[in-house]
Amino acid sequence: MEQPGFSDLKDAGVLISGGGSGIGAALTEGFARAGARVSFLDIAKAPSEALAARLSAECIHPVNFVHADLRNITETKTAIDEAGRNAGSFRVLVNNAAWDDRHDIDTVDEDYWDNNQAINLKQLFFVTQATLPYLRKEKDAAIVNFSSISFMMNMGDLPSYAAAKAGIIGLTKSLAGRLGPENIRVNCILPGMIVTERQKELWLTEQSIEATLGKQCLKRVLTAEDIIGPCLFLSSKAAGAITSQSIIVDGGIF
Asked: Is residue 183 part of a domain?
């Protein structure tokens, strides 16, 4: 996997939430191959352990996986402290963890809503809060949050998810305003249709993929690897004057 040359990320401490599969796994690999010291949190042990072992054998720094259920804030804070002790420092936080489960307005109950928000929005704030002591030790640091174009597309089958992803835009701007004076930049990436194995197993069909390609300017399927470059850029000193911004990576739907 060839990576763009963001040389300042070499040896930088990076923490990624949900870094064990899908887009998160691509980001973990992208930062590791850029020479960063990568730690990642994930709830899925087996694939995360396998990813960490493979990348540790192939990259210049070992990749550190710490198990955590991000819905449990106490557990999350403990996991971040463990990752921080192992890494020594974090210059970059990537808030990637999410759950894009489809759900119908007539069947959503309070427990489902709260669980969905806990995974997609609440944990993002508390992961950021728990990582701040490490980011504040750096001369300049970056946070990259992950939203989605879904909330802009009037998609009727994921109202809680769409609400959370819209909320991440607001949270990004608020955090940027609060943390900018401390030289911590906060930006957001909004992926479009990223075709992963999970998406193909659960939601995407050949027909739905073709329909989305018809809306894209770029007539090719986007994969998780297409997200790596934008995330590395926003994390690097090349984006040193960019904060409070949202970048859409959707092949040109918007």
From this structure: yes
Q: What DSSP string runs through 36-71?
A: -EEEEEES-HHHHHHHHHHHHHHSSS--EEEE--TT
Torsion sign across C-alpha atoms 220, 225, 230, 233: negative
Q: State the burial class of residue 161 (Cβ atoms within 10 Å of its Cβ: 0-12, 13-18, 19+).
A: buried
Q: Specify the pTM.
A: 0.96
134 assigned to active site: no
Residue 203 lies in a domain: no
Number of domains in the chain: 1
Q: Which of 41, 161, 162, 171 is catalytic?
A: 161
Q: Are the C-beta atoms of residues 8 and 236 closer than 8 Å to each other?
A: yes
Residue type, 133: P
CATH number, domain of 111, equals: 3.40.50.720
| Residue 4: inside a domain | no
Write out pLDDT tens, residues 103-137.
Answer: 999 999 999 999 999 999 999 999 999 999 999 99
Report CA 151 to chain centroid distance, whole Å.
17
Task: Give the range of the structural domain holding residue 53, as residue numbers without chain letter.
Answer: 9-195+225-249
The 10s digit of each residue's pLDDT in 168-201 is 999 999 999 999 999 999 999 999 999 988 888 8
